[in-house]
Amino acid sequence: MDQQPHEVIWTVTNAIVPSSCLHVVAELGVADHIGDQPIPVKELAARCGADPDSLDRVLRLLSTYGIFADRSGAYGHTEPSRLLGSDHPMSMRALSRMMGLPVFSAAFAQLDHCVRTGSPSLEQVAPEGLWPYLQSHPREAAIFGQAMTAKAAADVAAVLGAYGFGRFGTIADIGGGRGHLLRAILDVVPTAEGILFELPDVVATLHIDSERLTAQAGDFFVDPLPAADAYILMEVIHDWADAEAAAILRAIRRAAPADAAVLIIEGVVIEDQTDPRVQTLDVLMLAVTGGRERSPSQLSKLLESAGLRPSTVIETSGAMRIVEATAV
Ligand SMILES: C[S@@+](CC[C@H](N)C(=O)[O-])C[C@H]1O[C@@H](n2cnc3c(N)ncnc32)[C@H](O)[C@@H]1O
Predict the structure, then answer these.
(1) Contact between residue 235 and residue 268 where contact means Cβ atoms under 8 Å apart
(2) Taking the chain, what is the end-to-end CA distance rounded to the nearest angstrom?
(3) Which of 1, 96, 181, 298 is spaced 20 to 30 Å from 306 by Cα?
(4) Does ligand 1 have an atom closer than 6 angstroms to the CB of 198?
(5) Ligand 1 centroid, distance to 177 Cα (angstroms)
(6) Using N-to-C axis directions, what is the helix angle for 93-100 and 138-162, rounded to 10°?
(7) Number of domains comprising the chain
(8) CATH code of the domain containing 249
């Protein structure tokens, strides 16, 4: 139902309330303590070490969004609340935990800093920047890594459905996190080999269980990248301002054989977009990394500046688009 104007403002102003409830519930692991039947809130609170009245009120609010079912003093699962379970194959628990980490919430509490200065507010909390911060905070880094896998679960399926990777022999995933996209591609292309290029601290946490997958530790601003038939960059270019984004693409151009494909996979700003996910990620980048979501023409300019020839923008069934380019 359409909201009245004052309701729109009220809802957006107070959006921090339900989102904070979700972060806490994810952190406490509440979903893991609910089985097939609703469970009385007192028992649930005891299982997750929470105050029963407070937990009841938090869950009662979330249930109005369809997250948990309120059964008069007992709570059961709904389809969305099941996604907060740690063992759900599409679990989004880590994503909610990540957004609740003090370093992220403090950055958002100081969003005015970005708007006044143009610099990411995360620097007010972690002056070294996000990636060095994560390197020196292993607990947060583990949650961040799980969150990237969590947010990617649906995106990976959408990317595989939209693009044929079968023509590539070697695929390099640059800044590929824990390799969720690359592993999924190798599963559907049994003839391909994959190289995951990531920061040494991330590579040190990886368990490589396929002979067709290798991990190369390095810094894409400093170290040479591997040679490959295709380079994938999922939500990497959007982490950086133009100068750094262009430097990553130039590093790929230096390593790439002629005609190699370069695929930027992330949200693309299209005019008249009504789905707020890309704009949400854009402001997230503004606050946290200093990067941005870009339009097709902004991405084309970046690619061309690095000696890459942009060709098409491919839609997926999710919020991501695939911007394809070729090394010339
Ligand atoms: C937003 S995450 C995206 C991860 C993955 N591609 C995905 O979509 O889930 C960005 C990744 O870039 C990696 N990264 C950041 N700086 C890097 C650098 N200088 N060299 C290599 N990787 C880097 C981070 O460790 C992180 O895993």
Answers:
(1) no
(2) 51
(3) 181
(4) yes
(5) 5
(6) 130
(7) 2
(8) 3.40.50.150
Same structural domain, 264 and 194: yes
**Share above pLDDT 70 across residues of the chain, in percent, rounded to a whole number:** 100
Distance 235 CA to ligand 1 centre (A): 8
- Centroid of ligand 1 to alpha carbon of 28 (angstroms): 27
Position 102 in a domain: no
Q: Identify whether residues 200 and 320 lie together within a single domain.
A: yes
28, part of any domain: yes
pLDDT band at 2 (very low <50, low <70, confident <90, very high): confident
Using the mean position of ligand 1's atoms as its centre, give its distance from the Cα of residue 196 in Å: 11
Q: For the segment 17-41, what is each residue's pLDDT rounded down to a tens digit? A: 999 999 999 999 999 999 999 999 9
Last residue in a domain, options 88, 119, 135: 88
pLDDT at 1 over 90: no
* Average pLDDT for 312-320: 94
Give the residue whose CA is nearest to atom 3 of ligand 1.
Answer: 235
199 lines ligand 1 (CB under 6 A): yes
Query: Is residue 108 in some structural domain?
Result: no
CA pair distance 63, 103, nearest whole angstrom: 27
**What local confidence, expressed as pLDDT, does residue 152 receive?**
86
- Write down the H helix ranges in the chain: 5-13, 16-28, 41-48, 52-64, 79-82, 93-100, 102-109, 111-117, 122-125, 130-135, 138-162, 180-188, 200-203, 242-255, 277-288, 296-305
Q: Is the pTM of this model over 0.85?
A: yes
Structure tokens at 145: 């890594």
pLDDT in the model for residue 43: 98
> At 65, which CATH number?
1.10.10.10
